[in-house]
Amino acid sequence: MSKTKITDASKHTEQFLRLADEYKNVIAKVCSVYATTDTPFSDLYQEVMINLWTGLDSFRGDSKMSTWIYRLAINTCLTLHRYNSRHTIQAMPIDACFDIPDDSSSQQEEIKQLYQLIARLETLDRAIIMLWLDEKSYDEISAIIGISKANIATRLFRAKHRLSELARNL
Predict the structure, then answer these.
(1) Cα angle, residue 141 at apex, residues 130 and 22 outer, rounded to 5°
(2) Helix crossing, 138-145 with 149-168: angle to 10°?
(3) How many CB atoms lie under 10 A from the CB of residue 93?
(4) What residues contact 129, with CB distance under 8 A and at least 6 apart?
């Protein structure tokens, strides 16, 4: 291997490791929303990391790195979810795949319930709600998901309404 290829490989590895560390919580959050018994959190996380490694050279800089990583993670999870949708899929308990902060037991329980409710939404709506909870703008959500801002607004309104209905029926 030539010295140039080794240097390029070393830069690629360094960039990957930096991004994997910097965005591990974002990736974990996306994976936790789509984790099921058929597609566990660890499998989703591993697939996202593989796609991050292989796709890193294709990042053109047309968007922010965070937008690209959200989109890569969501698309990876959606692809695996659709692949497994032919089978009966049971959502995993949220605490089995996501670190809930140790703030207070009542707050932990509320966060668990919220994510359990989010897991009952349609697959695309899960991503939209998750991004909205991360305080992403409609422009950013639109760029990540790949649908118009108007469609984001409509789906977000309906998803919030659905979450309210689900919460009332607990």
Answers:
(1) 65
(2) 100
(3) 14
(4) 118, 121, 156, 159, 160, 163
By CB neighbour count within 10 A (0-12 exposed, 13-18 middle, 19+ buried), where does 161 fall? exposed
Neighbours of 114 (CB within 10 A): 15
CATH number assigned to the domain covering 3-168: 1.10.1740.10
Q: What is the pLDDT along the chain (170 residues), one digit of tens a residue?
A: 555 555 677 888 999 999 999 999 999 999 988 888 878 899 999 999 999 999 998 888 888 999 999 999 999 998 888 777 654 444 444 444 444 455 556 777 887 888 888 988 998 999 999 999 989 999 999 999 999 999 999 999 999 999 999 989 87
Count CA atoms closer than 13 A to 154's CA, side-chain side. 5
Cα 12 to Cα 96: distance, rounded to the nearest angstrom: 32
Residues 160, 35: Cα–Cα separation, whole Å: 21
Location of structure tokens 């790949």: 146
pTM of the model: 0.74
